[in-house]
């Protein structure tokens, strides 16, 4: 389904296909040979989402562009089922497996692999050919790739990357206060979907 959002309609190359149950919303551009499978959602909330040629977006993946962090995906990239990409830059030939999460400001260089359940944190850069093993976490620039049980090291590297400021533009303080402010901001921003128009 193509959706016009905030006056922007998707641009889909004639050689690309989008499954009937997928949603492509707003300023989303799909190159030739792209395949967007059932249940996937590609949404340009306030920043564009651009896919090169022969990008495969599997079932129930979510790709979201934001004003601070548009999404750019190079040619010949596979985005696995139930993965989640927000505001990131993905170079050519990257493999993103099932359930992976790539966050705002992350950069994955050519040939990177993020395996099942892998996480690439905000503002983290993975150099050419880096592999994030199953369930591991990449954090920093250049990224350090760590097992999930290395929480203290992950937190030490992640804290200065400042997830709340990077993603929401908010200072980290009391979690309850932060959550109130970010949900209030989201509520206002996402109300823009009230004016969406289904194109087909």
Structural class, please?
alpha/beta
Approximate strand percentage: 25-35%
CATH superfamily: Hexapeptide repeat proteins
Task: Compute the separation of the termini in Å.
Answer: 6 Å
Q: Give the second-level CATH assignment, the architecture.
A: 3 Solenoid
The number of helical elements comes to 3
| CATH topological fold name | UDP N-Acetylglucosamine Acyltransferase, domain 1
The total beta strand count reads 24
Order of helices and strands: EEEEEEEEEEEEEEEEEEEEEEEHHHE
Number of domains: 1
- pLDDT average, as an integer? 95
Strand order of the largest sheet: 23-22-19-16-13-10-7-4-1-24
Shape: globular
Q: Largest beta sheet, briefly?
A: 10 strands, mixed
Write up what this structure looks like:
This protein is an alpha/beta fold and 200 residues long. The chain has a single domain (2-198), classed as Hexapeptide repeat proteins (UDP N-Acetylglucosamine Acyltransferase, domain 1), CATH 2.160.10.10. It is built from three helices and 24 strands. It has helices spanning 151-158, 163-168, 175-190; strands at 2-4, 11-12, 17-18, 23-25, 28-30, 35-36, 41-44, 49-51, 56-57, 62-65, 71-73, 78-79, 84-86, 89-90, 95-96, 101-102, 107-108, 113-114, 119-120, 125-126, 131-132, 137-140, 143-146, 197-198. A ten-stranded mixed sheet has the order 23-22-19-16-13-10-7-4-1-24, covered by helices on one side. Strands 2-5-8-11-14-17-20 form a seven-stranded parallel sheet, with no helix packed on it. A hairpin with a 2-residue loop joins strand 22 (137-140) and strand 23 (143-146). The longest helix is centred in the C-terminal third of the chain and has 16 residues, at 175-190. The model has no long low-confidence stretch (mean pLDDT 95).
